[in-house]
Amino acid sequence: MPVSFAAMAPSMAACAIPLYLSLLVVSFLALHQASPSYASDTISPGRSLSGHQNITSAGGQFVLGFFTPTASSKNYYVGIWYNKISLLTAVWVANRETPVTDPSTSELRISDDGNLVLLDRSKGIIWSTGTAIPSNSTVAVILDDGNLQLRDAANSSQVFWQSFDHPCDTWLPGATLGLNKLTNQSQTLTAWRNKADPAPGIFSLEIDPNGTSQYYILWKMSRIYWTSGVWNDHIFNLVPEMNQNYIYDFQFVNSSTEMHFRYTVKNDSITSRQQCLVYALCGPFGSCNDVVKPFCKCIEGFRVKNQTEWDLGDQSGGCERKTPLHCGRNSSGNSETDAFLPLSNMRPPDNSQILATLGSDEDCESACLNNCSCTAYSYNATGCFVWYGALLNLQDQYGTDGSTLHLRLAASELQSSKSKKGVGTWIIVGVVVVVIIVACLAILLWRRRSRRMMRKSKAVGGSMVPFTYRELRHATKNFSHKLGGGGFGSVFEGSLPDSTVIAVKKLEGLYQGEKQFRTEVSTIGTIQHVNLVRLLGFCSEGSRKLLVYEFMPKGSLDTQLFRSNSTALDWKTRYQIAVGTARGLAYLHEQCRDCIIHCDIKPENILLDASFVPKVADFGLAKLVGRDFSRVLTTMRGTRGYLAPEWITGVAITAKADVYSYGMMLLEIVSGRRNSEQTEDGIAAYFPKLVATMLVADDVESLLDPRLGGDANLEEVERACKLACWCIQDGESCRPTMGQVVQVLEGFLDATMPPIPRSILLAETPEEIKFFSELSSEQSSQTSSCPRTQSTKSNSSGV
């Protein structure tokens, strides 16, 4: 795993360097268990990427495609990110400074000259690999180490360009960072500007361009505020911790032509952060704390100078005074003066000046108070130290060498130790003391709960987090914002202390014991896939059973398909939703240690993230309830209109029940309406019957949602309709597996004309009965009753 090098905030996907070279943010992100690859790893001259399309490395570790840095961002970038980490963590960005606003009209492709290029909607080049290529046939391949290579299509060893040679903000294991002595060109890591903007920021790391074997961390490409020291054949001599390394293997090369450093990781399960050693991370009068989030805060008497930049993770602007100092203001009297606030647990800032002639703390204070530019002083056995102007690199909870930093503030910012005498004063003091004691107790209780919730907030993203009912009630504001509900309970929106938005489901009718529930939840929590809603935590207190999920800002698929006031999804988005949902179900059926049958696939249980990536929801409830479906058949699963016939006949349920429900939902994705609904003239219409008719008539365009105005890939529409009819076959043995469904949608398998299911033959008029009976008889003589899969790579076709 890489070591993350962040300029501004730990939440950023940031540049990465080895642990012992970094005095910045160091983050090791643990990958989940390996799983099979999902999609092709190659962009060829005949295949490009656009919209939500992407390619995945052969082992499923990394993805290349379009992404947005934050949910609120309207800019899209082409980048590489981890496939198995739920929070999108980018490690490389192509168009760092030139985003696109609409990925559906942009295209990443192989150009005529063999380069990999990013085109905007007018087919102008936004970004290019920009290298001279002698070959007339190239491909771009994403590898499992995160490296994107442009190479000869016939000779994979002939590499013309690779992202490892052009790092952005992340130094991945196996990549080199160094200097070409022949061309004098060096590879430099540069942090993001902020968490919403991957453009180059103010922090960078590079090897010494003068040829010494050491690395520099630079601020604004000018100031060297840290160096590794030179390489002594074993370690960098200013990083002695490398001698105690149990995590990396190191290699340093210094030849006549090049000089570089490389590392590989032995163990990827460690998480470590050293945020506060970034120079001026929190800006003027900002204090940093490595222990808790947020890392930066304003010291007492100061407030955030630019809240917008601060919220984006850029705290370098720092803080400004709440109240101007008295010194320097015109005043006839001197009734109000500045005073000093002692900070005994604060790291002294940089750039102090020593006044060696002053021999006492009082003299040091007086010298600072008499200089309007003096903002702080400290006195110890060494002498009097004073600071002028802005204070940088303040660090909280740092420890002390016996001295105290005294911060200059306006007198009104401090509680005066001089109070008026008299009975009234003592009464006020008594009241204040009582109030303070009560407030302190309340604060202690609140802090205790806040620290506990903050720790759990930080744990989200790692292992399963156990919550108390009180914590979730507080997070959801007493379950006030209901998102929806279903057969197992209602879902409410909530927020953790670190602003992570969550969805909390209150389970109803679940009567498992504590131990069994926790065992099932921990098992479900390890099941992670980009198309499955992630379970973050749980609560189990007696009969109170709650599940905490990641929040999906675009809601459920039914709200996007069926609500008249919603903007119609374009066909490309719908098709990607169909593909993603199929991948998620295939993972549950075929790639988990135990096959998990969802049992209630419908648009209401398909949630969409900010980029309309589909995620199957409630997939874990089937496992929580158990596999004895016959015992709870009447109360447990399914929704009318999506139920497979075997549910009604009482036959044992298999994964093919999900396939049937998926087929019914796929038809609704095509039409944009429920399969069974009344037309404008009040006549009930059954869409699957219309699909069968139009497939025979070769008129699939009429099946498309009229709101799309015919703007769709008709080949994909026909493929989806045929596949859906295969999925809703009466006999489960005639239905494809979800793995085959994915292959058909991705074009690796063809779908022949399916038989007409008996449920569709239940027509309402004699003419329809005659038509479908003759059609069914004709098909029976032309095709087998069950699907047959065949690769599109052969000359024949058919599912």
From TrEMBL:
Keywords: ATP-binding, Disulfide bond, EGF-like domain, Glycoprotein, Kinase, Membrane, Nucleotide-binding, Serine/threonine-protein kinase, Signal, Transferase, Transmembrane, Transmembrane helix
EC number: 2.7.11.1
Any single Gene Ontology cellular-component annotation: membrane
Domain Apple: 335-409
Protein residues bound to ATP: 506
InterPro entries in the record: Bulb-type_lectin_dom, Bulb-type_lectin_dom_sf, Kinase-like_dom_sf, Pan_app, Prot_kinase_dom, Protein_kinase_ATP_BS, S_locus_glycoprot_dom, Ser/Thr_kinase_AS
Protein kinase domain sequence ranges: 477-749
Boundaries of every Bulb-type lectin domain copy: 40-167
Residues passing through the membrane, by range: 423-446
Subcellular location: Membrane
Listed Polar residues bias regions: 786-799
Name of the featured protein: Receptor-like serine/threonine-protein kinase
